Amino acid sequence: MTDTLQDLIASAAALIVGLAAGWAVHSAVGRHKRAREQRFFGLPDGSECVLVTHRDSTTAHWSIPRHDALALLGLASVVENCGAHAEVAPHDTGLQGVGARTEFCVGDPTAHRRLAAHLASLLPGVTVHPGDESGTDRGTFTIAGTHYRPEPGAVEHVLLARLTAGDDSRPVFLAAGQRPVTHRAAVRHLVRNRARLARKYGAQGSFCLLLKVVNSQAYGPDVVELVADVTKPATSPAGPRAAAKAAAKDG
Question: E strands, the chain, where?
């Protein structure tokens, strides 16, 4: 065997070993990433979750508003990537309590019964104004005495939260917004930033973020700004001081 042939064989062997090592590292990184996402979303292989949405009140049949439907499609992709299975359920049907399975609850809390119940029990520091007879201030959020009123098409807000009822319970994800476009924006923010959110809050951590959707009439759900991390005030019952502050601002 000539030296040239030996060199070629050695080079080929080194290349094969290098490719195999690279594939092994890539596969390990992929498995680690998938496992991290499964922990964050509470979706181990073969698990079940539920996507809860409200009905479109403008139609006689059960249908989902366009932006809500697109938000659910984004979540369905996450569920599939985690190797889990999803059920879509309307907000006004009887469902299990919190924690039995991962839940994604998307909609307008003034019309979405399940979402309103979650806000009352899990985010007691958030008040959502139902609006008066003319609809004025409908959907306005009040958090720690500060009002966040919608300006349709210009500035609209949405709460994005990951919450748990106990250490062993599956998480509930909430996208509670002032218009359907904000629900889609919140879900996109969750999906795009899932790795960063998992690092910041932990795989089992809870959070509640107030997001602002800017100029949706021109940009749809694309321009989203973080207003504040409101986890602490949102998960704490509104005290008399916050209530007095809110009343003073209304006066």
Answer: 48-53, 85-90, 102-107, 126-128, 141-143, 146-148, 155-163, 172-177, 207-214, 224-229
Cα angle 213, 229, 79; round to 5: 70
- φ/ψ bin of 176: left (φ > 0), alpha (ψ from -120 to 50), beta (otherwise): beta
Q: What is the pLDDT of residues 45-82, one digit of tens each?
A: 999 999 998 765 555 566 678 888 899 999 999 999 99
Condensed to tens digits (0 to 9), the pLDDT of residues 187-225 reads: 999 999 999 999 999 877 899 999 999 999 999 999 999
What is the greatest pairwise CA distance in the chain?
96
Task: With CA atoms as reference, report the closest residue to 46 among 103, 86, 104.
Answer: 86
Contact 204/182 with Cβ under 8 angstroms?
Answer: no
Contact in structure between 211 and 186 (CB atoms under 8 Å): yes
Going edge to edge, which strands form the sheet with 207-214? 85-90, 48-53, 102-107, 172-177, 155-163, 207-214, 224-229
Pairwise CA distance, residues 29 & 24, whole Å: 9
* Cα 8 to Cα 56: distance, rounded to the nearest angstrom: 68
In this structure, what token pair is assigned to residue 226?
């973080």
| Single pTM value for the model | 0.81
